[in-house]
């Protein structure tokens, strides 16, 4: 801190642009890409101009996010299409810290279909090593005419849940003519 002006030399991580701030306020789902990898749709909770994302055992899968320092976040608008993509600084909230004690219960109360109470859920996250990450604006967002005009759709990724289809069950023998 500079003594002459009483101004901190550190950057306030809660400063955002109006577009990012509005998109974050309305966000329920964000697409997060870590290290240039594929983007994953993740449930999120807006808090103080940033997004909180939970991942780990028993929660959503976000490969690489728990240990990442940066990520790329894409948010959609009211029309369902992408309106802004921004680089994010990722900080993991650790159990026992003041940030954890403030944010984790808020995230737990908004978690849908969770077994038990919010306090039980926060305790499970701490015990099982789930990551509660804070995604804050970390650079210049890309929005409006700067967004790509072409489709960025990709073919579906291979997943273990895909299974081969079987022939349908027939109760009676079907005769061919």
Average predicted local confidence, pLDDT: 84
Instruction: Tell me how many strands there are.
Output: 8
Spans of at least 5 consecutive residues with low confidence: 1-14
Measured between the Cα atoms of the first and last residue, the distance is 89 Å
Could you tell me the radius of gyration in angstroms? 21 Å
* Total of helices: 3
SS content category: alpha+beta
Which sheet architecture does the biggest sheet show? 8 strands, antiparallel
The portion of residues forming beta strands comes to 25-35%
Q: Helical percent range?
A: 10-25%
List the helices and strands in order: HEEEEEEHHEE
The 3D shape can be described as globular
Could you explain how this protein is built, in words?
19% of the residues lie in helices and 26% in strands. It is an alpha+beta fold and 177 residues long. Strands 1, 2, 3, 4, 5, 6, 7 and 8 form an 8-stranded antiparallel beta sheet that branches. Helix 2 crosses helix 3 (118-128). The model is unreliable at 1-14 (pLDDT under 50).
Main attributes of the structure:
alpha+beta; 177 residues; eight-stranded antiparallel sheet; 8 strands; disordered N terminus; 3 helices; globular
Quick structural gist:
Helices cover 19% and strands 26% of the residues. By secondary structure, the chain is of the alpha+beta class. Strands 1, 2, 3, 4, 5, 6, 7 and 8 form an 8-stranded antiparallel sheet that branches.
């Amino acid at each position: 801190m500079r003594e002459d002006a009483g101004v901190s030399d550190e950057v306030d991580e809660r400063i955002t642009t109006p577009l990012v701030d509005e998109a974050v306020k309305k966000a329920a789902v964000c697409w997060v890409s870590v290290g240039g990898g594929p983007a994953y749709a993740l449930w999120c909770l807006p808090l103080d101009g940033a997004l909180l994302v939970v991942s780990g055992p028993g929660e959503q899968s976000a490969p690489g996010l728990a240990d990442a320092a940066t990520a790329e976040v894409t948010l959609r608008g009211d029309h369902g299409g992408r309106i802004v993509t921004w680089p994010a600084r990722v900080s993991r909230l650790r159990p026992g810290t003041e940030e954890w004690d403030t944010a984790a219960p808020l995230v737990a109360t908004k978690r849908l279909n969770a077994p038990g109470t919010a306090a039980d859920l926060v305790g499970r996250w701490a015990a099982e090593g789930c990551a509660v990450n804070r995604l804050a604006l970390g650079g210049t967002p890309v929005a409006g005419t700067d967004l790509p005009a072409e489709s960025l759709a990709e073919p579906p990724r291979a997943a273990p849940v895909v299974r081969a289809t079987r022939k349908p069950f027939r109760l009676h023998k079907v005769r061919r003519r």
